[in-house]
Write a structure and sequence with these properties.
The complex is a heterodimer of chains A (533) and B (235). With 533 residues, chain A is mostly helical. Chain A is built from 23 helices and no strands. In chain A, helix 2 (29-61) crosses helix 5 (110-144). In chain B, helix 4 (106-119) runs antiparallel to helix 5 (135-147). In chain B, the strands form two sheets. In chain B, strands 6-7-8-3-9-10 form a six-stranded mixed beta sheet, with helices on both faces. A four-stranded antiparallel beta sheet of chain B has the order 2-1-4-5. Chain B is globular. By secondary structure, chain B is α/β, with parallel strands linked by helices. Chain B has nine helices and ten strands. Chain B has helices spanning 40-47, 69-74, 91-102, 106-119, 135-147, 165-180, 192-198, 216-220, 225-234; strands spanning 2-11, 14-24, 29-33, 55-60, 63-64, 76-79, 153-157, 184-188, 201-206, 209-215. Helices cover 39% and strands 26% of the residues of chain B. The chains are: A mainly alpha (533), B alpha/beta (235).
Chain lengths: 533, 235
Amino acid sequence: MVKALFRKQMLEIFDVMFRHGRNQKQRTYVGTAVSVAALVFVLYILGRLLYNIADLTCELFVPTEYGWCYFAVVGILATVLGVLSSVFTVHSTVYQAKDNELLLSMPIPSGLILGMRLFSSYVICFVFEAVTILPFYLVYWKTCHPGALPILLDLITLFVFPVLALVISCALGWILALLNSRLPKRIRNIINFAVSFVFVVFFLNVCLKASNYMNMLQNGAAQKNMGMQVITYPFVCMGKAALGSTGPFLILVLILLVLAAVVYLLLGKSFRSLSSTKNQGRTRAYREKTLKASSVNSALLKKEFRRYLSNSSYFMNSSIGSILLLLSFVLMIWNYDQLHNRIGQLQMFSPTIPAVTAILVICIMIGINTISASSISVEGKNLWLMRSLPVSEGAFINSKILLHLIITVVPQLMCSAVMAVLVAGTPKQSVLVLLVPFLFALFTSELGMMLNIMFPKLDWVSESNAVRRNTSTRLAVLISWALVLVTVLVFRKLPENTDIILYLYLVSGLLLMLIIGLHIWIHRKGEAMIAVL
Amino acid sequence: MLNIRNLTKSYGNVKAVDDLTLEIRPGEICGFIGHNGAGKTTTIKCICGILPFEKGDIQVNGISVREDPLTCKKNISYIPDNPDIYEFMTGIQYLNFIADIYGVDSSVRQERIHRIADQLDLTKDLNQSVGAYSHGMKQKLVIISALIHDPKLIIMDEPFVGLDPTASYQLKQLMREHCKQGGSIFFSTHVLDVAEKLCDQVAIIKSGKLIRNGTMEEVRGDSSLESVFLELEEQ
């Protein structure tokens, strides 16, 4: 039974690699290899980025008295990332999975179902934390040559430490499930959005203030601040264990085991009732009112918006880029004068650097949005409806692309407009700051749609699977970022006196051609492919 | 109203529907019966334009599904066996969405929703999210949405599954009303008693081939539909 459940859970996580989303057939060995390679590549890029950061910072911090603080901060970053990546997965796979009732009807102990669900969430936490922590360990081993014991403790910590993120995710997921089972749907969505937003802001805050946290850890330890010590204790132990201290390592393992057991027992008590509650809140009986008529296109767009806003997992996972753009906009307005001075200084050094950097950063943020790349997948079993209605495939696709554009372009234009004003005095640059990200948003919306038509995942168990564990969303982010990277690399290969503004105008032209190419593909081949999905 | 000629649909090497020819006239209710996997749902999905097919043609009110699918779909309503509809909408939002897609006038949709929802006893639940509906309530909602644009032909796949006895009775009434007004209904069912009482015409499919088709009297003869069906199945 355990083996069968374990296999089912693993299939749920990894089936995207072994099975075609479109026809549900087993992938060929080559297809599987390409799929695995794409995932490994994304993880490698993230890991490589962190490895470079570790390479720059390790030698500065580790040999000092507070070397453990360095790893403790890495632990905080990894935990926040782990929580961010798994909290909605825990919520949707533990409490909202479509097969909960089926499994509960079988002679399987509910604790075992819960355990298996938690294990799949642990795997997600582990992947994200390993990608964050391992580069720092590797650099530490390479530069400090710590010996066998610290390396062994580091390796065990790598597997044990994600339990902390899992425990926090479980606690938050439980709160979300409890709220979901008691509150009306509208309030529930607002709360889910607020929680999601707070997570992202919190994560950004942790990243931006890593050095402050190092000071906080040092002070907390020095001042014997009880509250601070309790909160940071697992990270302090993790930091000390990373350097080879056996005592803190054993305490860390004990803390994690106790936390895991407590959370498992608490969740186990409410799992059955929460996972089988279908509360939609108290709803008032329908009172007839005038129904507003809309055009087909407007009705389709409204439908897309309703779906998008109905599930926090969908909008959070697919529009992190827009949230980051909105936050950037707020920060730019908040620190306008400071930013204006800094840009002025930079322009004296190089007149084009601020505009070019802004374009690249905005494009990278745009590239994270995967609304169109998951929009066909989220249709799931509802796809028959569109095919039975008198709606052309073109109109169906356009509504999804339009949703992606609205969600992406509005914050993009807000950010671009502020930057265009900040780099004022050079109209060519201001136009570029508005134009290139806008074209890039158009490109990513069509790219995502093309990829989702090619790699749809329609047989999801929970909606977050359709958004997160989807080849098309991974490829969409990867290709978008790769395009930004290639643009930079190509420019670096050009002669030194090449005008970067002219180069970016050429890139805009190329983007426009790509957009037209994608548009033609989507409305010729893509429509035909959707008709037979 | 519905004219199927030599319809052939395969999944790989397996012929799910093989050279099927069938005609339904205006005002008729046609029952489509057959064992599990006989090809009923595949035929229905081909008629509705959900599945493409290799050979033959399907015309609804003289319009070919293959050549002009959108115009054809405007004349059809489809009620599936499993009402997988948008759970993120409330009942009334769903009905309004369907009315928008078919371009139903605001006052007309209002009147139809009011009348049919009252008849099926769903009015008070229209404010609820579809996700909170039971199978039967979803089925009722799909029935209302199917009638909202006054289609000429209604295609139903096992429409009585999940409906309570009252709703079942109401649906039969709605079906008869629809046909009195000149519309046609083509529905699949395993409940032969219902088919026998409700249908003017019956079509029996076995392994993708239409093995019997005609008026209820022609097919049934002196015995019951059940015994005819079982006899044909054994052959």
